[in-house]
Specification:
Elements lengths: L2 H4 L4 E2 L2 E2 L3 E7 L5 E5 L5 E2 L5 H13 L11 E3 L3 E3 L16 E3 L15 E3 H10 L3 H11 L1 H10 L6 E2 L6 H5 L4 E3 L1 H13 L5 H12 L16 E8 L2 E8 L6 E8 L3 H14 L1 H4 L1
Antiparallel strand pairs: 1-2, 3-4, 3-14, 5-11, 6-9, 7-8, 10-11, 12-13, 13-14
Length: 281
C-alpha cells in the first residue's frame, strides 16, 4: 500500500473526510483550561449514550419505574421498530417495519430475547461495553424527549439523540445523533457531581463510568489516578470524554475526531490527553 493511501482521510456517512480534531479541558468548577474548536459539532457515536444514562436516573428519581427504581426490569430483545409506528389514513395501525443491528454493531454478551435485565444492568452494559441493544431498549422505554431533557439540564445545547442506534428508517428520515467536545465535558461533569441528580445516583454513575472497557484517555493516565469515561466510534469518527482525578483536583476532558482510521483517531485522542496532562495536573 502506498503511504499516501494509508493516510487518506476516511469518508463515511458520519465523516465528510476532512480531518478534524476538537477538545475541551475544564477544572472541577467547569472553568475552561484548554480548548480547540470545542463547539464544532460531530456525529456523536456512542458518547450520546451518556444522555440515556442520565435520563434513566432522572426517571428513577421521579418514580417513573415505580418503587423498584433502577432495579426495575425491562425485556431484552435484538429486534426493534424501524422509525416510528404510525397510523394509516383510515385510522388502522400501520404494520411496523423492524430492524436488527449489523453484525459488527451487536453485543455478543447481550441477554437473549425475552430475558429480563434491570435498568441499572442495561445502563452498565450500555456504558461499560457500549451495548447498542441495551441502548435501544432504554431509548424505547425513556423516549427521545426525556433524553433531550437530560441534555438540556446539563447545558448541552448542541447535543441531540433523535433516534435509536442503527435505525435505518430514522436515518433515511434525516434523524441523527450529534454532540461537541464542550457539551461532552459539561454532560460528564453534571453526571458525576450530582448537579442534576441526587448524590447517591451521582456516585453510582461515577462508578459506571469507571468500569469503562474501551478507554482512550484513560489508557495514558498515570497509574492510580481515578478516572471514568465514555468513548464512541463509527467509521471516520473517534471520540472520548473522561473525568480525571477526585475532588477539587478533578478535571474533565473530551476529545472529538473525524476523518481518521480507527487507530489513527485513537492515537490522536491519546496524544491530546497526554499533552494536556500537565494542564490537568
Amino acid at each position: 500500500m502506498r503511504e499516501e493511501d494509508a493516510m487518506a482521510p476516511v469518508t463515511s456517512w458520519a465523516s465528510d473526510g476532512i480531518p478534524s480534531v476538537s477538545y475541551a479541558l475544564t477544572d472541577h468548577t467547569g472553568r475552561v483550561l484548554a480548548s480547540r474548536a470545542s463547539h464544532t459539532v460531530y456525529y456523536s457515536a456512542s458518547t450520546v449514550k451518556l444522555g440515556v444514562m442520565l435520563a434513566a436516573v432522572l426517571a428513577a428519581e421521579r418514580g417513573e419505574f415505580g418503587g423498584a427504581g433502577l432495579g426495575a426490569e425491562l425485556e431484552c430483545r435484538h429486534e426493534f421498530v424501524c422509525g416510528e409506528v404510525g397510523r394509516g389514513h383510515d385510522g388502522d395501525d400501520v404494520v411496523a417495519e423492524t430492524f436488527v443491528l449489523d453484525p459488527d454493531d451487536r453485543d455478543a454478551a447481550f441477554p437473549p430475547d425475552g430475558a429480563s435485565a434491570s435498568v441499572a444492568e442495561l445502563v452498565r452494559m450500555m456504558i461499560v461495553r457500549s451495548s447498542n441493544e441495551a441502548t435501544n431498549v432504554l431509548f424505547d422505554r425513556l423516549g427521545a424527549a426525556r433524553i433531550a431533557e437530560a441534555f438540556a439540564l446539563c447545558g448541552a445545547a448542541s447535543t441531540r439523540m433523535e433516534r435509536r442506534i442503527g435505525d435505518p428508517c430514522a436515518v433515511r428520515a434525516g434523524l441523527t445523533n450529534e454532540t461537541c467536545a464542550a457539551d461532552l465535558v459539561a454532560i460528564v461533569r453534571a453526571l458525576v457531581t450530582g448537579a442534576v441528580t441526587n448524590a447517591e445516583h451521582a456516585e453510582w454513575m461515577r462508578g459506571v463510568l469507571a468500569g469503562q472497557e474501551h478507554p482512550r484517555i484513560g489508557a495514558v493516565l498515570p497509574s492510580g489516578v481515578p478516572w471514568g469515561s465514555k468513548s464512541g466510534d463509527v467509521p471516520g469518527i473517534e471520540h472520548d470524554v473522561a473525568f480525571i482525578g477526585d475532588g477539587d483536583a478533578r478535571r474533565y476532558l473530551a476529545v472529538c475526531t473525524r476523518g481518521f482510521e480507527p487507530e489513527q483517531g485513537r492515537e490522536v485522542i491519546r496524544a491530546v490527553a497526554g499533552a494536556l496532562q500537565t494542564v490537568a495536573g
